Amino acid sequence: GNRCGYTRGREGTGGLKQGSQSRGEVIFGWLMFIGLFGLRCDILKLPRAALEWRDGVRIFHDSLGLINKCRAVVRLVGVAKAPAPRPPAGLPENSFGFNRALLAAIYLTFAAIGLIGFLFAFGEWDRPVILFGVRIPDLIGESDAVRKPFGYLHSALGFYYMMLATIWLAYGVFQHLRYRVGLARLLPGRRV
Question: Model's pTM, two decimal places?
């Protein structure tokens, strides 16, 4: 296998079947899935959080957002370096490619959201940026010129990533119903 976890070339290269993932890739995939799901729940909870809970929810949001942004960048680099996996039997290559493109768009969007979110967080008024319990020194300072545009863009991309994830999942269900390739392949660690 390689950094992305997919095998190169013919069946059985590196001890993995074509389309299979290494143990490290499976763990990475599940951590990404759990992190994205956790952040999704946090995104929906943050506006409704009671004031006494809001700081803790923000620390969780900022810390998990940083972790997921880094994972998304690592995943994009790994996918770019790895050979393209082949679709499972019975799934047309263009349908498989579209599903993979949606997944790449989700990772790319999430990497952008993380960078924009950092700029937004540092531009906010009276709000320290705390990651994993450690206060980060102000890098930008309070600025409406930074806070407003990056705040709106961060929120818009957050909903865009959730929309992409919904389309990816719906398309995976369509592929299962149309081509009988199985829903389990949408989970981390399954054959692609």
Answer: 0.78
